[in-house]
Amino acid sequence: MQVGILQCDSVRSSLSEEHGEYPAMIEKGFGDASPFTFRVYPVYQGVLPDQVDECEAYIITGSRYSVLDTEALWIHQLQNFIVRLNKAAIKTIGICFGHQIMAVAMGGKVERADCGWQIGVHRSRVLQSKAFMQPPAEHFDLAMLCEDQVDKIPDTATVLAATPQCEYAMLMYGEHFLGTQGHPEYSPHFAKALLNIRQEEFPSKRFDNGMASFSERPPNGELLFMWFANFFLQGREDAPADVVSA
User: Fold this and answer.
1) CATH superfamily, region 2-233
2) What is the rounded average pLDDT of the residues 178-204?
């Protein structure tokens, strides 16, 4: 199964040599034994698939850029492409920025979060469990690095998980769109290195608490990647026997 990675940013040069680019982090998250092959589209450079069915599924990455940037042409182009993906019911997962732009494309709204920057590891409580969410969990912990968040959801959205500050931490639309505000692809080492580089952007106490959270509550992004794999494979005739059916 070929998965298109819609890359919405690049890793800072001071970090990329050690940690790689965002598509590589996502590929690593699925594991060496995953049934997926990947094709990368640098969307932030204006590159999108010519046709929505160029890949069987897609992942939209996070980004330092904001969905609220109304002057960025590539953001408008990506939003229009998401509308086409929805019309074709092609399975798509959005991470952070990808989660937000998916919500906007579907008719929702994104705003600056009232609580300000959300950084470090945050716990999401599962509000509604779906068949692909195996192994089951009552909550999951993910690294977060965001100033914006989904403020209003479309009528077609189902809320699957929430944090105390982010009530739409995981959304599902029909059986083909899934979004999460947290970053399962971030290793603790990378997330802390990125926070250190951007330290001056955050209130000092929030930065300290965010860094400490990685020791207090290690993220379990591997759980989310198991869910992502199940989500992509669910309902396929060639899915492995251990993947839940719809």
Assistant:
1) Class I glutamine amidotransferase (GATase) domain (3.40.50.880)
2) 96
* Strand 92-95 versus strand 177-180 pairing type: parallel
Can you spell out the DSSP letters for 215-230?
HHS---HHHHHHHHHH
Edge to edge, what strands does the sheet with 57-60 contain?
37-42, 2-7, 57-60, 92-95, 177-180, 170-173, 157-162, 118-126, 139-146
Convert the pLDDT of each residue in 33-58 to its tens digit: 789 999 999 999 999 999 999 999 99
Tell me which residue has tokens 């990125």: 194
pTM of the model: 0.95
| 124, β-bridge pairs | 140
The DSSP symbol for 183 reads B
Contact by Cβ (8 Å): 186, 222: no
Which backbone phi and psi does 132 adopt, to 5 degrees? -75, -15
4 has a pLDDT exceeding 90: yes
- Cα angle for residues 37, 42, 44 (degrees, 5° grid): 145
With b for 16 or more beta-carbon neighbours within 10 A and e for fewer, the 128-162 pattern comes to eebebbbeebeebbbbbbbebbbbebbeebeebbb
DSSP state of 200: G
Q: Tokens for 121, please give them.
A: 């590891």
Dihedral angle at the C-alpha atoms of 190, 5, 145, 71, nearest 10 degrees?
130
Which residues partner with 6 through β-bridges?
41, 60
Scanning the structure block, which residue is given the tokens 């979060």?
Answer: 113
Place of tokens 């719809």: 246
Reported as a pLDDT band with limits 50, 70 and 90, residue 145 is very high
